[in-house]
Amino acid sequence: MVIIILQKDVPMKQHMLWFHQPILTMIASLNLKKVRYLEKNIFDKENERTNAATGDIFFTSVGSLGRSCVYEGGLNICFQRSVSVIHTLIFNYYLKYCLDSAYIQQKIVREATGTAQKGFYLNQLALLLIPIPPIEEQHRIVSKYLETVCKRNITKQMKHWMF
Fold this sequence. Notes:
By secondary structure, this protein is an alpha/beta fold.
C-alpha cells in the first residue's frame, strides 16, 4: 500500500510517498490511484529513519525477504520498517546485484529469524561477506552482468517465438 502525504495546493507529482508494505519491483510503475493520505508531521517523523535519496538501495528485510532495487529518485518517499534503506559508497548496482545473487539469497532464507513472519535484519545484513573490488572493477562486473542477462533474455525470447 502506498500512502501519499496530503499537502494543499501541491501538484500530485510533488507529494511525498510512504510505502506501507514492501513494494520493490519498479518504483516507476506505481499505481497512485490507491493511496492513503498522511499528515506532513507523520511523514517527517518516519522519514527521519529512512531519508531515502537517489541511488540508495531498498532491501526488503521482513516478509518478502531479500528483494532489492536502486532508487532512481523523483519521489520523496519513506518506508515502514520492513524495508531497509541502504546508503552506500560502493557502486550501488554492484551491491544490488550481489544482494540478488543466489548465494546471498540462499543465505538470507537460511538465516532469517522469526515465527509468524521471517526477517533478515540490519545486524544480519551488516555481517554479510561481500567482495568489494576497486570501483572500476565494480562497474566492469555490473556491465558484464547486464550484458549477459540481456543476451540470455533475448535468447529466451527467440526460443519462445520459434516454438
